[in-house]
Amino acid sequence: MFVIAKYITKYVTSMITKITSLLVIATIVAIIAPLNANAETVPDTPKGTINLNGAGATFPFPLIDLWRVDYNTAYPNVNLNYQSIGSGGGIKQHIEKTVNFAASDAPMTKSEAGLAPGTLHIPETIGAVTLVYNIPEVPAGGLKLTGQIISDIYQGRITNWQDPAIKNINPGVNIPDKGIVVVHRSDGSGTTFVFTDYLSKADPNGWSKKIGFGKSIPWPIGLAGKGNEGVAAIVKSTKYTVGYVELAYAFQTKMSYASVQNADKTAFLEPSIEGASQAASGILDKLPAANGDWSKVSIVNAPGPKSYPIASFSYLLVYDDLGKVTKNMEEAKAVIHMINWMVTKGQESSSGLLYAPIPAPVVALDQKGLQMVKYNGQVIWTGGSADVMSSPATSSSPAAGSKIPDWIRNNAKWWAEGSISDDDYLKGLQYLVQQGILKV
User: Fold this and answer.
1) CATH no. for residue 194?
2) Per the confidence metrics, is the pTM higher than 0.70?
């Protein structure tokens, strides 16, 4: 009998009783199934042993880490090392040409793009930035906040949880008379870019004029944590805190999150896959080509009754000539093949980790971008677009993710913590297939 990864045993029994759930079956099949597309319409399959390096955003790290293992399962000869160092660090390494690709939740500025000519933006997922809090007296999901209130808290203008502005929109909630402890990022961060872009739009006469937005800003107050992981750790361990993290981090660590008022000021919305998708829907026909100017692209505070206001694309940054960052044509082919897999087959895993799958028009845009890429002037992928897969079912609330077994939903978190190894995870899958619980 194979050794099962840590925590898998705990959920095998429950999985047997729930295996008729289409969502569970779809998620499991997505993790272990090979790439299902016509070989003539996808980039060449990588040959030989290839090691790729990427770095950047912590925002999509749980998803990229899941892709890392799933892709290696399908293509064991290709290994990816992705360092979750923040969008600022990823852009820096991209400019310095020390990685094969980078990831950023903030599109490159014009000045950054000028330092890295030939950069393509490849949107790989859509995520939600979540306002998390640690108020023992207030249940999870029990707090409502507006953009103006969040701006005032982060400027130090609202310093107590019982401030009238907070109490007035939270009638009946047992809000304590306690000082607010603000938590923000310490590193150059795409999550910070998205969050401060939102505050600038929600409070144009205050935050926008006094502080502005960017990957790094002069925070007026607060404690600082490195990465989404660092902010989440401070909020979880310190009472009466408020911070901002990507939805997957909030849900996986069972943090309390606030409902935020939409741009229309008609509702308070929980962060969700559906809300992030709705925020992106209005801009799909306005997106630039992969080699265009993405510096002004934003989906924060998007109109619409169901548009979650703090949402963003997350991007992979790739040079249009991989001769700058790869050793040979086979390595360059592996970069294109892997990224194409991420934006097609890999999207099946998005909803299970609470990211919104990119819509079909964005997949098509991505593939056109990948077909622009060359290796020392030689075209890598000569044409044809892989069939765009149907998106997994989305949910209006993070709670719907509980239908997915924890060992699937949390696997990226466990790998990151070192609780399980790749070998453990793969042996666990083999065991479930052997026992007839899963069918490949």
Assistant:
1) 3.40.190.10
2) yes
